[in-house]
Amino acid sequence: KPKSDVTEKKHCNVGTIGHVDHGKTTLTAAITKVLAKDGLANYVSYDEIDKAPEEKARGITINAAHVGYSTKLRHYAHTDCPGHADYVRNMISGASQMDAAILVVAADDGPMPQTREHLLLAKQVGIRYVLVFINKADIVNDEIIELVEIEMRELLSDFGYDSDGAPLICGSALRALQGDPSEHGVPSVQRLLDAMDEYIPRIVRDVTSPFLMPIDNAFTVPGRGTVVVGTIKRGVMKRNDDADLMGFGYNIKTTLSDIQIFRKSVPEAIAGDNVGVLLRGMKIRSVETGMLLCAARSMKMTNHYKANIYFLTRSEGGRKKPVFSKYSQQMFSGTWNIACRIDLEPSMHMMMPGDHGEVYLTLLEDMVMTQGQPFTIRENNVTVATGIVTETLS
Ligand code: GDP
Ligand code: MG
């Protein structure tokens, strides 16, 4: 049993991504092995990780191992998937919700197609921090490693990641797993863990952007007015701030007359706080679950979005037939749903069950959706697709 008290530490969701056979699972096992020495993890063997149990998320089957470990600073929940298709399903369904990804690249291969595809998906689903582990340093010389470093920095920059600041750690997961004390062995995994502690901000909550809160619930307080309840997704709310209540085609101007946390009035509340907000002049019948309370004029409401979508296979309960443009069904996200039309890229004739790719969404009414927001498509109450918003279109 790990000795440390993980409950006192900040929690962080991470995962290994990258091309098949580049060493993701070996690295995951090596991390637990290295930390087990200090009582910060239970050692989880390669085989235990690789035979990840099947789980059902939003109707689809995902194979993913969830490994927990601690550094001196915080607790990590680490996701490793067995195959490429599992990564695609895991990331597009929003099942892992990683705060940061460890992109593993084998030095002898360099970046490969799935290296790019996983990084693209990471960007699309809104993973903000990527660290690179250049693996298999034991079988190449230093010049090769330098080349891979340059290629990886270029790749990060291609996808809009912090190409100069992102940590690039070079080592050998296999050597570390074998307990090799030389530079490419155990110390390389320790360097990766130090970089994770340092590079991933301690509070991943975004408190600098304009505030945003999805409405979970609303009720009337006699003599006072309408209170909306939710968890602030980002930003800071202050009493008397102007706000827009948006969704289902409506944009209602209002003011935050009072903010309460645990039934106590507070002058302000920040991302992560669960709050009740009294809205000036708001009628209860104007409020619908799924609307968003946003800082005044900070968000655009539209019915056009770009999304990455995965169509479930027949064996996952999905469709039997392919999907063509103008496919119309009910879309579900969070606590709300709306009629939606899906159009494929013009170059794409159809999508088969089991396919994934980018599509265009047209909602029946204007909504506010944010990048990385997961949704499902259902036909007669059966989930046939899972997706994630990648872009707001006008
Ligand atoms: P994954 O598909 O990305 O999870 O890759 P695995 O962790 O399954 O590793 C694929 C293969 O590469 C296995 O045979 C590993 O033993 C081997 N491997 C992993 N890391 C290293 C390393 O640092 N050096 C060498 N030489 N082989 C490695
Ligand atoms: Mg693996």
From TrEMBL:
Keywords: Cytoplasm, Elongation factor, GTP-binding, Hydrolase, Magnesium, Metal-binding, Nucleotide-binding, Protein biosynthesis. It holds the Pfam family GTP_EFTU_D2. GO terms for cellular component: mitochondrion. It is an enzyme of class 3 (hydrolase). It comes from the Eukaryota. One of its GO terms (biological process) is mitochondrial translational elongation. Belongs to the TRAFAC class translation factor GTPase superfamily. Classic translation factor GTPase family. EF-Tu/EF-1A subfamily. The keyword Methyltransferase does not apply. Residues 9-204 form the Tr-type G domain. InterPro entries: EF-Tu_GTP-bd, EF-Tu_GTPase, EFTu-like_2, EFTU_2, G_TR_CS, P-loop_NTPase, Small_GTP-bd, T_Tr_GTP-bd_dom. Monomer. It comes from Bombyx mori. One of its GO terms (molecular function) is GTPase activity. It is found in: Cytoplasm. This is protein-synthesizing GTPase. The lineage of its organism: Eukaryota, Metazoa, Ecdysozoa, Arthropoda, Hexapoda. Its EC number is 3.6.5.3.
